[in-house]
Amino acid sequence: MGNDLTGVALDVQAGYTRREWLARAATIVPGACLAASSAGRAAAAPTAPVAVARCRTYGPELLPTLDRMFDQLGGLARIVKGRTVGIKINLTGMPSYRVGYLPLGHTHYTNPEVIAATVHLMGRAGARRIRLLESCWSTADPVEEYLLQAGWEPRDILRASRNVEFENTNCLGKSRTYSRLVVPFGGYIFPAYDLNHSYEDCDVFVSLAKLKEHASAGVTLSMKNCFGITPATIYGTGAGEDEPSELPRGGRTMMHTGYRQPPRSAPQEKDPKSPRQDGYRIPRIIVDLVSARPVDLAVVEGVKTIAGAEGPWITHGIAPTSPGLIVAGTNPVTTDAVCMAVMGYDPMADRGTAPFETCDSTLCLAEDVGIGTRDLSRIEVIGVPIKEALFDFAAIRRQRLLSPSR
Amino acid sequence: MAARRTPMRWPATWKDPATLALLKGTAVDCLLLEKGAGLGPIAARAQQEGLMVAEAGAPPPGVTVTDGEWPGVKLTASGTPDRVSAGPTGVPWVDANGWKIRLMAALHPGTDIWVEAVPVAPRLFPESYIIGVADAAAHGGRWIISLDERMAAGVAAGNPEALRAWKTLTGAAGFFSAHEEWLQYVPAAVVGIISDFGGQNETMSHEILNLVARTNQQYRIILKKGFSKACFQGLRAVIYADEDPPAPDLRKEALAFVRSGAMLITGPRWGELPGRPLAGVEHPRYELRAFGRGRLAVSRADLDDPYLIASDSMVLISHRHALVRFWNAGAVGSHLAVTPDRKRAVLQMVFYARLFGDNRPSVRIAGRYRQTRLWTLDQESPGAVETETQRNAVEAHLPPVTGYAAVELEV
Known about the structure:
The structure holds 2 protein chains of 2 kinds.
Chain A: E1 2-3, E2 9-10, H1 18-28, H2 38-44, E3 50-54, H3 62-72, H4 77-80, E4 84-89, H5 112-124, E5 129-134, H6 143-150, H7 154-158, E6 164-168, E7 179-182, E8 192-195, E9 204-210, E10 212-214, E11 218-220, H8 232-235, H9 253-257, H10 278-292, E12 297-302, E13 305-307, E14 319-321, E15 325-329, H11 332-342, H12 362-368, E16 381-383, H13 386-389, H14 393-402
Parallel strand pairs in A: 3-16, 4-5, 4-9, 5-6, 9-12
Antiparallel strand pairs in A: 1-2, 3-15, 7-8, 10-11, 12-15, 13-14
Helix pairs in contact in A: 3-5, 10-12
Chain B: E1 7-9, E2 30-33, H1 40-48, E3 52-55, E4 63-67, E5 72-73, E6 94-95, H2 98-107, E7 112-116, H3 126-137, E8 142-143, H4 149-156, H5 160-177, E9 186-187, E10 191-195, H6 202-214, E11 219-223, E12 237-240, H7 248-259, E13 263-266, E14 276-277, E15 286-291, E16 294-299, H8 306-317, E17 324-327, E18 332-338, E19 344-351, E20 362-366, E21 371-376, E22 386-390, E23 393-397, E24 404-410
Parallel strand pairs in B: 1-2, 2-3, 4-7, 7-8, 10-11, 10-12, 12-13, 13-16
Antiparallel strand pairs in B: 5-6, 9-18, 14-15, 15-16, 17-20, 18-19, 19-24, 20-23, 21-24, 22-23
Helix pairs in contact in B: 3-5, 4-5, 6-8
C-alpha cells in the first residue's frame, strides 16, 4: 500500500495498465509521485548506461578518468562535435561562504579542475563552442568575477579549450529577451519557464553537478543542479510584479514556498492552490525544468564534497567528505539513480524514506513523466560496480539523525 | 594621522570625584564635560591627576570632531533583535564611521579625528562598545567614549556586569592606544575617489565612500583641491562622480593616469571623452573605451546611485585586483595599511555582527607576505594565525572573533 500526497491509499496489487494508472493519477493529484505503481512506470521509462569511476584527487588522475568515462558512454564526439555546448555548473550560495576554511570546490561547488577538464575534453572532441552557465547568487555580475571571489582563477577554465565563455544566467544576460521553454508534458507546477537565452541557444546541454544531499530535496545531483537555471529576475525574491527585474535580488523563495507568483509577463503557476511546501514544489519544478531543457549529458562530481546538506548555510551536521567518485551518464534520471545508490540510498525510495523524509522524490516524479528510469535493474553500470563504489551517506545521515546535539 | 588622546564624554551623573578612580590604568586621558552639569569638582580633580579636560562640544585644539553613527548592523525601526535592515541586494546595512574618519583626516590634515556617536538601543551590549571603539580606531580616529544611562549607572554603582563591560571597553581603548605605530602606516588602496566632498557633491561623494568601504575595496580619498600626480600612484582606478566636470589640470592628470594602464570610472558630466569604444566588451550601465594602455568606463546615465557605483566599480576594476577578500566574515569592515617601505602591513578588521556556527572567517590579503601574526582585543601579545601562502597573496584562517582582529604582515 502506498500513499500519495492527498493521503489517498493506492493498492499496489490493483494491476492497472499504464494508461489506466495515468488516468487515475490525473484525477487525484496531477503528476503526483505514486509509489504504488512505480514498477510499471519504471518499466516504461527510458534507460541509458551510467559510468562510475574512482577518482581520489583533483590531480593528474582527473583528466584520464573523465576521458575514460566519456569513452565508456560512447565517446564525447558523438555528443558534442560541431555543436554549441551549454554546461550548467553548480556554484550554489555566495562565493564568500565556505565550509570552514575549505575551498568551495572541495565542498559544495563543482570543482574548478573538473570544470576545466570537462571543457578540455569537450574541446578536444570537437565542440564548436562551450558556454559555462550558472545563475550566480543575487547578482548579475559576470561569472568570472564570481569565481574570483571564490578564490578561483577563471582563466584556467577559459584556457582549457577554444571558444569557451561564461554567462551568468540569473538575468537577461547577453540577449534582448528571455527564452520561453515549454514543459512538454504540461508541467507539474508551471507549464513553461522564462529563462536566459543560453538554455535555448545550445545544441547540447550538460549538467555538471556535485554529489550532495539537500535539505529540501533529499539529494542534489544532475537534476537538482538544473533548479539553478531559473533567473532570479523572474523567479527570485526581488522579481518585478509585471516584468522581470533588471537585476536579480535574493534567492528563489518564490519557487520554494510559492508565496508569490512570478511577474505577469512569465508563465504563471498551473494551480496556485497546490501545496505551498518546498518538499512538494522543488522536486516538481526540477522535473519541469529538466523536461523543458533536457539534459544530454549528466556528470556528477563527488571527488570531495559534503555530507548532510547542499551548503554551509545548513548549520547542523555538515561534514566534509571524500567519496572519491565521479558518475556520468546521458540520462539524468539513470545517472542520479546510480548516484543515489553509491550514496547508500535506494533510488526507488519515495516520500517518507531517506533521503526523502520530508519531500517527494525528484527521481520518481521524473520517471513518472518518462524522462528516465530509476530502477537499477534496468540501468547498465559501467566501470566501478555500485557495491565497490559505495560511500555511505545514508549511514552518516542515520548517525546524524541520532546525534544528541540535533 | 595621529590619535594621540583617548577621549571620554564624562557621564553627567558621575558627580563624585572618586569616580575618577575608574580611569586608573586605562587609556582615557581626556574628559569632555557637559557645561552646567555641576561637574566642576570632577574637572578640578581630573586636571590635578594630569588628565586633559575640555567642554563637550568645544574640543581641544588640534582635534576635529565629527558626528558619526553608532556602529553596527542596522536593526529595523522596531528594534526586533532578529530582524535587520538590508541594503539593495539583501546584504545587511551597516552603520560605520571609518570612511568619515578618513575623509575628515583628509580634509583636516594634522588634526586628531574624534567621532561623536551616542550609543543607541538596542545595540548596547558590551561587544557593541568594543565595535564603537574599534570602528573609529581601526581607521585612525577615536570614538569619544560615551556610556548609555544604564551602563553609566551600573558602573557607578559597582554592578559586576557593568564593571565587566567597562573593563572590556577600556581594554579595547587601551589596545589601540598601545598600537599608535599603526597610525603611521599608509592606507593601501586599489581605487581612488576624487571629489571636493562638499557643496552639491557632498551627499553623493560621502555615500560613495561609505559604500565603497562597505565592499571592502581599499580606497584612497583624493581631494580635487591640492591633488598631485602622487595621489594616483599605485591605484588601479579612480572614480569621479561630481556634478561638475573636472578642472583642466585634474582632467589632464587623470587621463595621464588612464593612459598609463589604469581606469577612470565616471559619468556623462566628465565631458569630452578621448579614446575609442572597446569592441566586444559590454556592460549594462557603462560604455567602455580604450585610451592608451587603460580604459574609461563612462556611465550611460547620470551617476545617481552610489550603491551601483560602488558595486559596479568592483567588477569594472575586477575582483582580481582586490587587496582584501573575505570568507565567512559576515558584516565586516576592513582597513589595510602599509609602512612607507611596504615591508610591513596591518589589516584591521571590524566584525559588526556576531559570527554564528562553525563557519570561521578567513581573509586573503594580496602581497608577498611571509610572516603573519594575529592581534585580538582579549590578548596582550599577538598569536599565531594559520596561513596559506598563495601566488602574490596570503590567506589567513582566523579563529572565532568577536568585534575586532588585526593581522600584522611582514614580507
